[in-house]
Write a structure and sequence with these properties.
Bound molecules: flavin-adenine dinucleotide
Mean pLDDT: 93
CATH architecture of the largest domain: 3-Layer(bba) Sandwich
Strand content: 25-35%
Number of strands: 26
CATH superfamily of the largest domain: FAD/NAD(P)-binding domain
Largest sheet: 8 strands, mixed
Distance between the termini: 42 Å
Shape: globular
Number of domains: 3
CATH topology of the largest domain: FAD/NAD(P)-binding domain
Helix content: 25-40%
């Protein structure tokens, strides 16, 4: 950057949606010099994605942004299916609790509007000393071997910034992705369009989601916790779509699909049409530019994976990008796409299968719709906890009942933070403490209850570490900064 005469930064993040904000929190807490530019002048107020999956909650916990989400989210949101006859069928929440074998402190997906998740991340970013530059649009990008020059439109006029790396977190229509010539391969299903919006409605029980199957397509109203808003979703027919979406038009749809007088929409905050695109980039990196979140993959909302997959992209990328800006080989960045592209591929396939099945059942009888809704999520895949990188790298599970740690009694309390972690089990190796560095590697000596000697030892008082990790005496377990197992030796 030196000598270019224009402001420089190590990383320029384009877009302050949930993905850009996650990456910004991770980079800022690592002390990486980064800027976040956002085209809009104010924060997003639309609910869009409305479930946060267990793995994402673990990520938010590590970043220090989980409290607001836990306080504002709702774990159990049962479903009321309204039959055309006027009868109702009650069924459990369509979100599935993660199976016990994942050992997560956050087994329940939480229902919460995307604006609330973004709020939590933004507040955390500010707390860490980061900022969002509002009303700043990335217009053009030219890259060379050392970095990229990005032209910006700002409220003060046009300017340019020189960045060593640029991350496109600018959503499905990503201008940055287009500027570097990476296509989103796949298809747009013109048949599958959904009206969506945030509305207020009187007289509905807010402790549950309401679903009405109908010949015109099902109508779904989901209460957004800690607000008086409902997210409304219903299939759209392009032939009758008006030029402007209004509350009155949505009311007519509601009357058609739920029956006249069933629900009165009293106001509408945000109304939009959602076209189901099933597309992804075949490469997440071109030179100095990386793609993350919707900029890299878009798919149907079935299974609640869009925002979650994107946040997990950012979390995979953060520590690698930080390491490369500090001198690690840029080859490390290739592992980002190598690890995350297969994840997106699976998410695309699964969410397409789910939306097709749900749409087929939308006009059918309540019993089959009920069965299909029950399969929208599961206790493994949609939680994000089953993701593996390569054949070996699986997520390090949590362990409870550890004693002697000043931090807490969970393994996750020891792992929390931007560093690598080395866990030594029943090891007397005197050289271990010297390996530790405050910023990069923490060493934790965990001993079985019978061998505890005091000092810095952390005692596996209930034998949980032994049960879950099945370590051999003296074994070393190396955990990556993003909570994945790197090596056991
Ligand atoms: C109408 C709608 C409904 C949705 N419903 C659901 C749902 O029900 N369930 C679900 O799982 N997912 C849903 N999604 C998807 C979910 O919202 C996304 O997966 C999630 O927002 C992705 O986050 P992101 O940060 O990658 O992108 P975004 O949230 O799109 O954020 C990108 C940000 O970049 C900014 N930006 C764009 N271009 C530029 C530029 N040139 N310069 C500077 N800033 C720029 C944008 O203003 C935006 O703030 C929905 C999306 C939409 C649009």
């Amino acid at each position: 950057m030196a000598g270019s005469g224009m402001p420089g930064t190590d990383v320029l993040i384009v877009g302050a949606g949930p993905v850009g904000l996650t990456l910004a929190c991770d980079l800022v807490r690592r002390g990486v010099d980064c800027r976040v530019v956002e085209r809009e002048t104010t924060p997003n107020r639309a609910s869009k994605a409305k479930t946060v999956q267990p793995r994402t909650l673990e990520v938010l916990d590590d970043l220090g942004a989980v409290d607001h989400v836990v306080r504002h989210g709702v774990a159990d949101l049962p479903v009321r299916l309204h039959e055309p006859s006027g009868g109702v069928v009650e069924q459990p929440s369509i979100t599935a609790r993660a199976r016990d074998s994942f050992h997560t402190p956050y087994p329940d997906p939480l229902w919460i509007g995307q604006f609330d998740v973004e709020h939590a991340l933004r507040e955390r970013l500010y707390e860490l000393g980061g900022a969002v530059e509002w009303g700043v649009t990335a217009l053009d990008l030219v890259q060379d071997e050392d970095g990229a020059t990005v032209s910006l439109r700002t409220p003060q006029g046009d300017s340019a910034v020189r960045a060593r790396y640029v991350v496109a977190a600018d959503g499905g229509k990503s201008a940055v992705r287009q500027l570097i010539g990476v296509p989103l391969e796949g298809e747009t299903n013109e048949e599958q369009r959904w009206y969506i919006g945030d509305v207020t409605a009187g007289g509905l029980d807010r402790t549950r989601m309401h679903v009405w199957p109908s010949d015109g397509g099902m109508l779904i109203l989901t209460p957004l916790p800690h607000s008086d808003l409902w997210q409304i979703q219903t299939p759209a027919d392009p032939a009758t779509q008006p030029a402007t979406l209004t509350r009155e038009f949505y009311q007519r749809l509601v009357d058609e699909r739920a029956g006249a007088g069933a629900v009165t929409l009293t106001s509408a905050d945000w109304l939009s049409v959602y076209r189901v695109n099933v597309r992804m980039a075949e490469d997440y990196r071109k030179g100095r530019v990386l793609l993350a979140g919707d900029a890299a993959h878009v798919h149907s909302p079935a299974g609640g994976q869009g925002m979650n997959t994107g946040i997990q992209d950012a979390y995979n990328l953060g520590w690698k990008l930080a390491a490369v800006t500090r001198g690690a080989s840029p080859v490390l960045l290739d592992s980002y796409g190598a690890e995350r592209i297969p994840v997106a591929r699976k998410v695309l396939a699964l969410s397409t299968e789910k939306i097709d099945r749900t749409t087929e059942q939308a006009t059918g009888d309540v019993a089959s719709l009920s069965a299909t809704l029950g399969e929208i999520t599961d206790d493994a895949t949609t939680t994000g906890l089953a993701v593996r990188y390569g054949s070996a790298g699986y997520r390090a599970p949590n362990v409870t009942g550890l004693h002697g740690s000043a931090l807490g009694s969970d393994l996750f309390d020891l792992l929390r933070g931007p560093q690598w972690n080395l866990i030594a089990f029943d090891s007397d190796d005197p050289a271990l403490p010297a390996l530790a560095t405050p910023d990069h590697l923490h060493v934790h000596r965990i001993t079985s209850a019978g061998r505890a000697r005091g000092g810095d030892d952390i005692v596996d008082s209930q034998g949980e570490f032994q049960r879950i990790y099945a370590p051999r005496p003296g074994e070393l377990v190396l955990v990556r900064p993003d909570g994945y197992l790197a090596a056991r030796t």
